[in-house]
Amino acid sequence: MSVTETHATVELVRRIARNLTILVVEHDMEVVMNLAHRITVLHYGEVLAEGTPDEIPSNPRVQEVYLKG
Prior knowledge:
Blueprint: H1 3-17, H2 29-35, E1 39-43, E2 46-51, H3 60-67
Antiparallel strand pairs: 1-2
């Protein structure tokens, strides 16, 4: 998606999420960190980590698999 489309989609999800729980599968970490209240990180279909947007980037397993590439 373009930047404009991504922004519009994020705003739509925020509006919908006021009254519902929403499951989002996304690879754009900026979108995830700005949208989610809770994050579950998967690696090859297995749960690698769960936490808040503040906790996930500092998780050693997430750093090892995704952030230090």
